[in-house]
Amino acid sequence: MRILVTLLVLAVIGVGAWQLLPSQQDSDATITVGTTDTVTSLDPAGAYDAGSWALFSNVFQSLLTYEPGGVSPVPDAAKSCSFVKGGLTTYTCALRHDLTFPSGTAVTAQDVKYSFDRVRKIDSEVGPASLFSTLKSVDAKGLTVTFHLSSPDATFPFKVATGAGSIVDPTRYPADALRGGDGVDGTGPYELTGYTKGKKADLAPNPRYHGAVDTGVPVELRYFSDPDALNKAWQAKEIDVATRQLPPSVLAALNASDPDQRVTEADSSETRNLYFNTRSGSPLHATDVRRAMAWLIDREQLAATVYDGTVEPLYSLIPTGLTGHTTSFFDTYPDQNSEKARRLLEQAGVSIPVTFTYGYGLGSGAAEAEAEELKRQLEASGLFKVNVKGYEWTDFQKRWAGGKLDAYAVGWVADYPDPDTFADPLVGTGSTMNTGYSSGAVDQYIKDSQQYADRGRVSDDFRSLQQVVADDVPVVPLWQRKEYVVSVADVGGGQYLADGNGVFRLWRLDWI
Q1: Nearest 5 degrees, angle CA 91-CA 95-CA 97?
Q2: CA angle (164 as vertex; 403, 476 as ends), nearest 5
Q3: Which phi and psi (to 5°) does residue 78 adopt?
């Protein structure tokens, strides 16, 4: 009897284990991922936003990439990269010999040069050309590419590893114009087999890929118009993974012990800032007007009400966890003080209330509720009149890039794990945020910081930079968020999907 019982128990265990393991067919089944991110362009020369770069990191390949949690880039399309002779003005990479474009053509250093040169030549108003501000020229010979920089820049390898460094096929991408259509010709771990703008991207493992990662299972990336639509699809079990972003109320209620789902909550360097048009003619041109606004904004209230405590108030341009983080805005504007704000406006000689337009991107998380809360806070003082208006994401980007908005809130996902990505692109002269702000002191601090190969030595430069920004107020930091990924119980790898450095590792997702 004991033998029979034992055999019965083993049989039951065997059946249970078999049910937990997917069949070979199931293990190759498509994983469906939902997000509210928006893809601005399928051409790396024409996009500088989180949604586009998330897709680029899967279908294109850069010379370098980042491992999960990594702070230094590692070779991907390159076999090796280094600065020449210990200096920081010449950077060279030896390309892998086994890379091919979808056409079957071998990838050469000349293709890498072409890719970098066209980003700078096209210089799209919503593109990433500003990242290569220190790049003077590129040489290519065989499988060796050499970058010549106009000044020492220890951050250049970080920038090479971003979506801006995506390698494209010269026969498919014009040298002086963005490519149209819905096609992609890259050498990344996935092939784009189907694409419907604003709806979905179908990704299949790329059999020709050679690089730093292993290819994964097929993925269908679905795009949703707003967090509520994403949550509706998640609740209806139409998607296997939900990320960036479910509604704040849903994130706040997530239960990691729920057996029907896997929840990943991780630290992130994603921030959100309120930017101001500082140009002459803007109602926010005068520094004292912007300082007055800084005295009125209540981040704690914003985080607690609009975001249900799922974000942390931020008083620093550089977020917590990165070298150079400070509390410069708290030190300069420690409380909400309408009397100090009024005196500043009177000092500026402007008419009260100051009227301006606040723009935000439709479908961008809780952007609408955030806009209304900031409007309420500023108008409660009687000092400002805020006209709030939402725009479709691409239109929104073009409006701020064209200097057509007085104020606008934009989330920022770090391009790379270094404080430089929160300085040069955001407040440097000619920044991608296009506020019109220019400070010789800020530019000098950025340039000085780029001379340190040891990035632990840049703290003083960035602390000083942030005090200048707090005094000039071209931007007001609002909050810093965590990274949330929710998946069904039989999908693993969500913890590696994103860590705030622009890489979206769909290849790490798998059936359990």
Answers
A1: 165
A2: 40
A3: -90, 150
Q: Which residues, at least 6 apart from 202, have a Cβ–Cβ distance to it below 8 Å?
A: 192, 193, 194, 195, 218, 220, 221
Give the CA angle between residues 168, 170, 174 to the nearest 5°. Answer: 100
More confident site: 146 or 268: 146
The pLDDT score that the predictor gives to residue 9 is 34
Helices vs strands, H then E, count in the chain: 16, 21
Determine phi and psi for 206, rounding to 5 degrees: -90, 110
Strand order in the sheet with 475-481: 311-313, 475-481, 271-276, 407-412, 354-361, 384-391
For 207-220, the DSSP string reads TT--SSS-----EE
Of 37 and 14, the structure prediction assigns the larger pLDDT to 37
Summarised one tens digit per residue, pLDDT across range 365-393 is 799 999 999 999 999 999 999 999 999 98
Residues 248-288 pLDDT 10s: 999 999 998 899 999 999 888 899 999 999 999 999 999 99
Mean pLDDT of 132-159: 97
Structure tokens at 14: 């065997």
Residue 7, judged by CB atoms within 10 A of its CB (0-12, 13-18, 19+), counts as exposed
CB-count burial class (<10 Å; 0-12, 13-18, 19+) for 180: exposed
C-beta of residue 57 within 8 angstroms of C-beta of residue 504? yes
In the predicted model, is pLDDT for residue 3 greater than 60? no
SS3 301: helix
Contacts of 339 (CB under 8 A, 6+ apart): none
Cα–Cα dist 90/137, whole Å: 10
Stretch 441-455: mean pLDDT: 96
Backbone torsion region of residue 104, taken as left when φ is above 0, otherwise alpha when ψ lies between -120 and 50, otherwise beta: left
**Tokens representing residue 15 in the block:** 């059946």
The helix/strand/coil state of 108 is coil
Nearest to 507 by CA among 206, 103, 83: 206
pLDDT at 177: 97
Give the mean pLDDT of 118-125.
96
Which pLDDT score is estimated for 6? Answer: 33
The two three-digit tokens of residue 237, written as one number = 């079990």
What single letter denotes the amino acid at residue 277? N
In angstroms, rounded to a whole number, what is the distance separating the alpha carbons of residues 14 and 9?
8
436 closest CA partner among 462, 459, 407: 407
Can the peptide bond before residue 334 be classed as cis, meaning omega within 30 degrees of 0? no
How far apart, in whole angstroms, are the C-alpha atoms of residue 23 and residue 397? 45
Q: 399-442, pLDDT tens digit by residue?
A: 998 899 999 999 999 999 999 999 999 999 989 899 999 999 99
Compute φ and ψ for 475, nearest 5 degrees: -155, 145
Strand partners for 35: 223
Q: Tell me 238's DSSP state.
A: -
